[in-house]
Amino acid sequence: MAKSDYIPRQDGKFLEWGQNLIVYVKLHLVAWGISEAAFEPIQTLLNAYVAAYNKAQEPNRGKVDVLEKNETRDKLKQAIRQFVKEHLIFNSAVTNSDRENMGLPIHDTKPTPPRIPTEMPIGEIDFSVHLRHIIHVRDGKLTGRTKPPQVHGFEVWYKIGGGQPMSDSEWGYANFSTRSPLTITYPLSDVGKVVYYRFRWVNSRNQPGPWNETIISAVIA
Fold this sequence. Notes:
By secondary structure, the chain is α+β, with helices and mostly antiparallel strands. It has 5 helices and 7 strands.
């Protein structure tokens, strides 16, 4: 994984890193299709920073010398960031080995597939509102979290009336939601019937995790 900032913060390390980068780029300008005109500004700024840095290291340096060093450093950093963005990061001629040699971040060109959920959700039914079941689903392991990492949402399956389902064929798909709670409204004709529920997490590719352990039942009132 790439660092949040690939440019070293400490002056001496930044100078060493910058010199290595610019020497390496200069050797590969033609192979990478980068023009001299695009490269020259950062070479000029590096030379200015080397001079200002060396002067700021002298025992008799003054505040002006330190200020000059900081200003040239910041200008060089800004120019390098822009150069890297425009000519190196997404340049197909620059290999990941080249980027590693220059101390640059390596971007993954293949998207990482989402994790298939392994957790089982916990569900609760609020049936205090007439003809409505308000379904609350949360992560059963991580306190304070509504969904496990990389989970897109949850599916609700149910069976209305009769005894508790004994096989998958008795379940019907009710709904999907990316957030809890989810409300299901029933017609008057279903009042008094028992509804059985089960839930499972689903990732962004619609790949489901395991069902919750306990089947939940509630009466439509």
